[in-house]
Amino acid sequence: MNDEAVILVHGVWMRAFSLLLLRRRLREAGFHTELFDYASVLGGGERSRARLERRIRAQNAAKVHLVGHSMGGLLALQTVQHLPGGLSGRIVCLGSPLNGSAVARRIAGLGGGRLLGGSRQPLCEGLPARAPAGGVGVLAGTRALGLGQLAGIFDEPNDGTVAVAETRWAGADAHREVATSHTGLTVSREAAQLTVNFLRSGRFDAGAAAA
Fold first, then answer.
1. What pLDDT does 111 receive?
2. Residue 106 belongs to a domain with what CATH number?
3. Residue 72 in contact with residue 10, Cβ under 8 Å?
4. Is residue 210 part of a domain?
5. How many folded domains does the chain comprise?
6. Which sequence ranges are marked TM in the entry (predicted)?
7. So what's the pLDDT on residue 107?
């Protein structure tokens, strides 16, 4: 049995390979790590949650953690909130608009709801602040490079796609800003190290005592 497993969940319009570098860094840190691929637009939300739940249950590990980028963080939390018995490990959300996304609402309002598909509701509305027992950490990017910045949506700190305020979820145990863009959170060495710290201790500070 592996001591700790991590399932990585990608964001909307992406596929699992976008998290290959993060997977490698988590493996180097000693975690058994695998990718979860799902149809973020064409697939229904219930079907994706059911598939992720089955993947969680299939892990032969003492603890199972989830790390989700953008919509992947929302899907991770939605799944755990409906998971009987909860999650044995922790969740890290990278640039996830847990309070809802202004960019997603702009896209939907312009008639582009089909571009969001099964991810539309959580992206537009966010999630209720019901934190799982294991703990949730959120990383937010502050380098404004992305669709939202180009469209002039933000007048506040953001990563180009998601505003920092959209990631400040009341159900989170820890929140940290990283000087990178929305996509950059998936390849940032700092973000990877902070993720490792939180999965191990429940805090982003290196060497913190277990929560």
1. 73
2. 3.40.50.1820
3. yes
4. no
5. 1
6. none
7. 84
* 175 within domain boundaries: yes
Cα separation, 6 vs 200, whole angstroms: 11
Q: Which pTM does this prediction carry?
A: 0.91
> Can you spell out the DSSP letters for the chain?
-EEEEEEEE--TT--GGGGHHHHHHHHHTT-EEEEE---TTTS-HHHHHHHHHHHHHH--EEEEEEEEETHHHHHHHHHHHTSTT--SS-EEEES--TT--HHHHHHIIIIIHHHHGGGHHHHHH-------TT-EEEEEE----SHHHHTT--SS-B-SSSBHHHH--TT-SEEEEESS-TGGGGT-HHHHHHHHHHHHHSSSSTTPPP-
**Angle at the Cα of 67 from the Cα atoms of 180 and 54, rounded to 5 degrees:** 155
Q: Is residue 171 part of a domain?
A: yes
pLDDT at residue 148 above 90? no
pLDDT, tens digit, 9 for 90 and up, residues 82-131: 898 889 999 999 999 999 999 999 888 887 667 777 788 888 999 988 77
Question: Is residue 82 in a domain?
Answer: yes
Per-residue confidence at 210, pLDDT binned at 50, 70, 90? Answer: very low
